[in-house]
Design brief:
CATH topology of one domain: Adenine-n6-DNA-methyltransferase TaqI, Chain A, domain 2
CATH superfamily of one domain: DNA methylase specificity domains
Strand order of the largest sheet: 4-14-10-12
Number of helices: 9
Largest sheet: 4 strands, antiparallel
Oligomer: single chain
CATH class of one domain: Alpha Beta
Radius of gyration: 27 Å
Distance between the termini: 12 Å
Length: 446
């Protein structure tokens, strides 16, 4: 393993947030080594349902400079290929976010290199995303690493960009100072960081794979247990329901209309907590901050009480369902319902309902326009939906078993998440130390 050491001599950089640098290094402003080409301000009215022309936007840039071109894509008309040909992106282009809403500015100017773009697609650069063009007199890979440094985040904050939403101009980056060794040393540093960060990235990937595996195990546990029970030796029978298959012989099947009653209780006044249905469950919405989607009239919202179910049945792809722990109000478009069957356990049916979303069991019953996120579950389909109905005691046992196992999964997931955070901190610290000359890697051999 490489042993870190210092450079023989240092000098003051003259930059407070940068401190000392190796004696033979220089400082230079980014404007002399790169150029930012910003994207076009496409409007929401420009977007269409489907096309081979994809608009790369801020939302496609994820933490750590990762590009996501699999979710929430926006398509543009094919005639835009010629009209906006200057904004076409290609493999190995480097893009950066020009806006960041995180206090740590973890997205701002972080380089993301486009890889594996599909040959049958055309990618156009959107507003607030910049494409970097590097000077031929520098090692582009080295410059990309300097953009990842902790010191650059500190510069942005000292420049007043660490606010609720940081909107970086080209000049904000151009005026930032970067440490600048000779081109040969830039290459050595870039080679070293390529290998060192690759090792850290491998460790991060293993932890991410563990989290994904735990997620799959969680889903499989719920799916199997709520439909098959806890006894592997129990005699089974055909439920007569395609999605459900076989169930324990002593179980029954009941329609939702005999298990639940849909409620519609409009509040008529303000003053209640606003409840939002998210993928993590029901949460109290912060309406004072002004963030997110807000309503013009909360008096039209409907009551939700503790123990009520509330589901976003308007979107079977990204919606969810939860058992409320709060009294409050939620959108009148959502479905609020409560148990009316005296032998039904709320926790058991919560797991079953959530499985309906996760496994897309409700999806075939949906109506509307899935392309626009409005694939809803009609009330008639909800009422007629057939679900397993084990004896109440068994429902309670199943719910407790699932809950206990999920707590174990949650602990393992939390441990893996913390490991990822530490590895990412280590990665950033290493990059910062190397590109600012705090450690000497010139003896590094490939």
């Amino acid at each position: 393993m490489y042993k870190y050491k210092l450079y023989p001599k240092y000098k003051e950089s003259g930059v407070e947030w940068l401190g000392e640098i190796p004696e033979h290094w220089k400082t230079i402003r980014y404007k002399y080594i790169l150029n930012i080409f910003q994207g076009y301000a496409f409007k929401s009215s420009d977007y269409i349902d489907e096309s081979r022309v994809i608009n790369i936007r801020m939302g496609n840039i994820k933490k750590g400079g990762r590009i996501d071109l699999t979710h929430n894509l926006k398509y543009l008309p094919e005639r835009y290929i010629k009209q906006y040909k200057n904004y076409i992106l290609k493999n190995n282009d480097v893009i950066i976010a020009m806006t960041d809403m995180s206090p740590s500015l973890e997205f701002l100017a972080v380089p993301a290199t486009l890889k594996n773009l599909r040959e049958d697609k055309i990618y156009l650069l959107n507003q607030r995303v910049g494409k970097l063009q590097f000077s031929q007199s520098v090692n582009a890979n080295y410059v990309k690493y300097t953009l990842l440094s902790y010191e650059l985040r500190e510069y942005f904050k000292s420049s007043g960009l660490g606010t609720v939403q940081a909107n970086m101009s080209n000049d904000d980056l151009y005026q930032a100072i970067v440490t600048f060794p000779c081109i040969e040393e830039q290459q050595i540093i870039a080679n070293y960081l390529d290998k060192a960060t690759a090792k850290i990235d491998t460790l991060i990937q293993k932890q991410e794979q563990l989290i994904e595996l735990l997620k799959e195990k969680r889903q499989a546990l719920i799916s199997h247990t709520v439909t098959k029970g806890l006894n592997p030796d129990v005699k089974m029978k055909d439920s007569g329901i395609e999605w459900l298959g076989e169930i324990p012989e002593h179980w029954k099947v009941k329609k939702f209309k005999y298990l639940f009653e849909i409620k519609k209780r409009i509040s008529g006044k303000l003053g209640y907590d606003i409840l939002s249905i998210t993928q993590e469950g029901i949460k109290v919405k912060d309406i004072k901050s002004g963030k997110g989607q807000l309503s013009s009239d909360y008096t039209k919202y409907q009551h939700v009480y503790k123990g009520d179910f509330a589901m976003n049945h308007m979107d079977l792809l990204t919606g969810f369902v939860d058992l409320s722990k709060y009294d409050g109000v939620t959108s009148p478009d959502y479905r609020v319902f409560s148990i009316i069957e005296k032998n039904a356990d709320a926790d058991y049916y919560l797991f079953l309902l959530q499985m309906g979303y996760i496994n897309k069991i409700f999806y075939p019953l949906g109506q509307g326009s899935s392309q626009f996120g409005r694939w809803r579950l009609p009330s008639d389909a909800f009422k007629e939906f057939q679900a397993p109905f084990p004896p109440q005691e068994e429902q309670e046992q199943i719910a407790k078993y699932i809950d206990d196992r999920l707590k174990q999964f949650a602990k393992l997931t939390e441990k893996a998440t913390k490991a990822i955070e530490l590895l990412k901190e280590r990665r950033t610290a290493l990059i910062s130390a190397v590109v600012t000359g705090k450690i000497d890697v010139r003896e590094f051999n490939e």
